Amino acid sequence: MSVLKALMVAVSVAERKRDEARQVLQNAQAACQAAQGQLSQLEGYAEEIQERWGAKEGASLKPEVMYHHHQFMGRLGHAAGLQSGVVADHLQRIEAASRQLLAAELRLASLRKVLEARRKEIELQQARRDQKQTDERAAIKYHSNAIGPSGQEG
């Protein structure tokens, strides 16, 4: 029975690790979605600014204004590039967390199979023991009935 208890503890630990791996994956996915949302906001803002700027193309603009606009758009593009890197990092974390979760699920499944096989083996051994005891009792009863109460075979 101690082997069964040890296996049940191992299954319990494996379930906890699987649950932790699932939580890590969910957290990574949420962080990636947030980063993707920020990237979308940056890109949307850049498009909006560019559209507004395009509407003023016919107007005469001072070189300083054009310079500042290009500087601003460059910074905005740089920020979007950095955010794209953040999103890529999150995607890698999601991939790693997915692999960890899969490994934890496989380990749990294999431990459950081992536990079930061990339970069946123990049940079979117990059934054999019970059958042996039943057979021994039947043999004793048969011999006692065959010999009879006077101690002689009848």
Primary descriptors:
single chain, 154 residues, mainly alpha, 2 helices
Give the helices and strands, then pairings.
Elements: H1 2-55, H2 63-147
Helix pairs in contact: 1-2
Structure description:
By secondary structure, this protein is an all-alpha fold. It contains two helices and no strands. The radius of gyration is 37 Å and the shape is rod-shaped. The mean pLDDT is 89.
Spans of at least 5 consecutive residues whose pLDDT stays below 50 are none
Secondary-structure class: mainly alpha
- Main sheet, how many strands, which sense, barrel? none
**Assembly state here?**
single chain
Instruction: Compute the number of strand runs.
Output: 0
Number of helices: 2
Shape verdict: rod-shaped
Residue-averaged pLDDT: 89
Distance between the termini: 46 Å
Radius of gyration over alpha carbons?
37 Å
Helix/strand order, N-terminal first = HH
Helix content, binned percent? over 70%
Binned strand content: under 5%
In short:
This protein is mainly alpha-helical and 154 residues long. The protein has helices at residues 2-55, 63-147. Helix 1 (2-55) packs antiparallel against helix 2 (63-147).
